[in-house]
Amino acid sequence: MAETALQLGIILGYLLLALGVGVVAYRLTDRTAEDYFLASRTLGTVVLLFTTFATLLSAFTFFGGPTAAYRAGPEWILVMGLMDGVLFGLLWYVIGYKQWLVGKVNGYVTLGEMIGDRFGSPILRVLIAGISLFWLLPYVMLQQQGAGTAIAALTQGAVPYWVGAGGITLFMIVYVVLSGMRGVAWTDTLQGLFMLGMIWVAVAWILSVVGGPGAATAELAAASPGHLTLGGGLYTPAYVLSTAISIAFGVTMFPQVNQRFFVAGSKRVLKRTFALWPVLVILLFVPAFMLGAWAQGLGIVAGEGENVLPLLLNEYTPAWFAALVVAGAVAAMMSSSDSMLLSGSSYLTRDVYRQVVSGVTERREALVGRMGVVVIALLSFVASLFQPGTLIDIGETAFGGFAQLALPVLVALYWSGTTRYGMYAGIGGSQLFYLGSVFLPFVPAGYVLPFAPGLGGWSASVVGMGLGLLLTLGVSVATGHAAGEDAAAYQRLSAD
Amino acid sequence: MMQRATFVWSAVAVLLAGLAVPWFLWGSSRVVAGLPVWIWWHVGWLGLTSVVFAAFADRAWGVGIEDTEGGFDG
User: Fold this and answer.
1) What's the pLDDT tens digit per position in A171-193?
2) Measured between CB atoms, which of A82, A492, A495 is closest to B62?
3) Cβ of A123: how many Cβ atoms within 10 Å?
């Protein structure tokens, strides 16, 4: 019982610290929508890096990823590195920098706003916001579910699932409503540093007990040699590429990440952040996923649906340290969710509410935005009580759904020949196909190329992306610009 | 027409992404210094990627995006 109290104390202390940061940020926030949603476009290098980084990371870093490495080998390190370290870095420039320039000139806050304006189409704007919210809500739910489960497991049921998930939801509502983007960015920085620190201490601790990485890897080689072999089982080349490509493009269209493209303080901030990506990804995922793989060699037994990292920590470290790491995992979930709440609310407010109601002032918009945060948080919390589907399943579905938006947007950003109908076809067609692959039994989820069967099956998400690209290009070529389009909107940009 | 710098940097980007996963080590399980060689390759490659990204940010930032004197249209 004393142990449970200590564990709860650690998590509660952590939450209060995050709340304190939020309050300080609130005192610096003025009452306009641009300040609430974008911190008036003033974020610096470290804060921008960590807020995006912490947002990208979720329960998967601590639970899903290490558990996958435990069961099938640490190849997920490569998926993460290619995805978040290289591809996302490239997209950070190709989509992010371009969007930053366009957003700065026109004062955009959301993706739908930027695209809707260029194509003179409120329908396109609402469509993009609607699709985004459709995929976003289940993903927020997933994070609350993860937090509730982690806390219940840590306290061995002393804190029931719904209290843990509800408590986290409440905390997030308070600091997101109070402090907006500035508070979210600051707490994300705190959470990102905390997670990184925790993982390294955990690795050092466990390796010092078992006799170093050489000994741990030798145990793994003896227990399960296949774990050290690149590829095999689940991991085919097509799986690695499909997953990395789909998620990297998907991440850029997640509202909370896409909105980060509008918030950098200067070009210099974007440049520095860009170069730090690959290093940060390696620093986090190599130790996190190797811990999972090593656990296999160390004889940790994780049953179906159990996460390996907490079991490993319980075996090798004291209870207070395991509690700290669980606090780190809760931090990861909160830092994803808080940003999603804020961005989801800005989509709801600007792309839907303001399109329907006229004469909305800046102050009123910021107020409605705060109400949106509360509504989204409560809806997803209620959904998390019923827990439909499994953690990784829903997560991957959402990333795939967002990935379908990326190529039409990319084409629109760079090719002035893109037309409104091309966008309708590209976005609508790929979404329908992908939804079909998720929900309809006769639309396959995997596709083997007839001329390269050895690569394994490609995911429906990547196939849908290709379809969206072809539809956007093809229909744009076949149709002319509609009235109200501004084909040159994204051209002739300069940073000065 | 695509400018020379855009072309060169695009090729570099494809190379960085293409070899982040050491495809030539597929099926290898050789361990060096406590970790499989394919993980070491990946760590080194991402380090290199970071250096190349920094060089790009330093010298060529804006390529393919910002308007240049030649009337570049993206």
Assistant:
1) 888 877 877 777 777 877 887 88
2) A495
3) 12
Q: What is the mean pLDDT of residues A208-226?
A: 92
Q: Is the CB of A86 less than 8 angstroms away from the CB of B35?
A: no
Nearest chain A residue (CA) to B29: A229
pLDDT of residue A142: 81
Interface test with A, best of B31, B59, B61, B65 (most A CBs within 10 A): B65
Do A344 and A129 form a contact (C-beta atoms < 8 A)?
Answer: no
Q: How many CB atoms lie within 10 A of CB A30?
A: 12
Residues 34-73 of B with CB under 8 A from A: 34-36, 38-39, 42-43, 45-47, 49-50, 53-54, 56-58, 61-62, 64-67, 73
Q: Decide if B27 and A98 are in contact by the 8 Å CB cutoff.
A: no
CB A369 within 8 A of CB A33: yes
What are the structural domains, with CATH classification, of chain A?
2-230+248-396 (1.20.1730.10)
- Distance between CA atoms of residues A275 and A492, nearest Å: 25
And the tokens for A251?
């991440």
The CA distance from A266 to A43, in Å, is 8
The shortest CB-CB distance from B29 to any of A97, A101, A228 is to A228
pLDDT in tens, A61-117: 888 899 999 999 999 999 999 998 999 999 999 999 999 999 988 888 899 999 999
List CB contacts (< 8 A) between A49 and chain B.
none
Of A293, A323, A321, A61, the residue nearest A202 (C-alpha): A321
> Contacts from A103-107 at CB under 8 Å and sequence distance 24+?
A103/A261, A103/A262, A104/A41, A104/A262, A105/A493, A106/A489, A107/A34
- Locate all alpha helices (DSSP H) within A254-266, ordered by sequence: 255-258
* Residues A125-182: tens digit of each pLDDT: 999 999 999 898 888 888 888 888 888 877 778 888 899 889 888 888 887 787 777 7
Name A448's bridge partners: A457
The answer to whether A344 and A255 have CB atoms below 8 angstroms apart is yes
* Residue B54, φ and ψ in degrees, nearest 5: -65, -40
Mean pLDDT of A274-284: 89
Confidence band (pLDDT; 50, 70, 90) for A492?
low
**Which residues of chain B make contact with A101, given a CB cutoff of 8 A?**
65-66
